Amino acid sequence: MNPQLQVLIALQDILLMIREANDPSSQRAMGKIGFEMTNLDALETTKTDLEGQLQPPIRSEYSRAQQRHGRIVVPVINSICYGCFVKIPYAIDGADDRNKTLYRCENCGMFLYWVDK
Ligand SMILES: [Zn+2]
Predict the structure, then answer these.
(1) pLDDT of 31-61, one tens digit each?
(2) Which domain holds residue 16?
(3) How many CA atoms lie within 13 A of 61 on its CB side?
(4) How many domains does the chain have?
(5) Which of 46, 57, 92, 98 is a good FRET partner for 109, with 20 to 30 A between their CA atoms?
(6) Looking at residue 39, which CATH number applies to its domain?
(7) pTM score, whole prediction
């Protein structure tokens, strides 16, 4: 898998964990009232480290996607982008090594990864 894609997928998980840690209703649901701030600090540090691993053009696209969609990376399943539910062109979807290149959906701009069949 493309190393930048791996960083983006990890970042998306970290962002979700930070969002949950900051959301009182989800803390209540998980019985986590009084979530340790050290955990949140560690998540923020990891987020900053991962962002630093992104190449500058990818980092700016990542920031844009995060602000616009709240998500960064979406799966392609049965040739469909799960960011916008539009079919991915066969020239990209049909490639054997599609996860080795960092692709973005031409319609919604989200970064894409494929789940191997
Ligand atoms: Zn899309």
Answers:
(1) 655 556 668 889 999 999 999 999 999 999 9
(2) 3-114
(3) 19
(4) 1
(5) 46
(6) 1.10.287.1490
(7) 0.86
